[in-house]
Amino acid sequence: MSIIAWTEAMSVDNPALDKDHQKLIRMINELDQSAPDFLELFNAVLDYTTGHFDREETHLDAIGFPGLDAHRVQHDDFADQVAAMLKEYRERPFDAGDTRLKDFLWSWLKGHILIEDQRYAAWTRARGG
Ligand SMILES: [Fe+2]
């Protein structure tokens, strides 16, 4: 999986949340599917992601973003999908060349930051924030 960089197009105009996103992207870039402690590293990314979701939802709640409930559903859905994949992995670890877990993180996060997170960024900008 190619390395993806954070770009201005991903900015949500909130320095703390932008930093979270940058760190997440960095962590996923560094995830090595063939590392012996891959699952541990993967779990570290998940922990950070969960913390980030909490911070983001707290922020959206604080600014009164009307799409918060729908946004929260997206976050919860991510957690459910990852849990299902992890269960599968634990039952029968994927081959080293099978990058499903990392690919999922990538595509989900990239789409989420570029599309879903941009909804609250646009809403904030429209309100002059
Ligand atoms: Fe989000």
From TrEMBL:
Keywords: Iron, Metal-binding, Oxygen transport, Transport. Pfam families: Hemerythrin. It comes from the Bacteria. GO terms for molecular function: metal ion binding; oxygen carrier activity. Coiled coil: none annotated. Residues 16-122 form the Hemerythrin-like domain. PANTHER family: BACTERIOHEMERYTHRIN. Belongs to the hemerythrin family. This is Hemerythrin-like protein RSc0777.
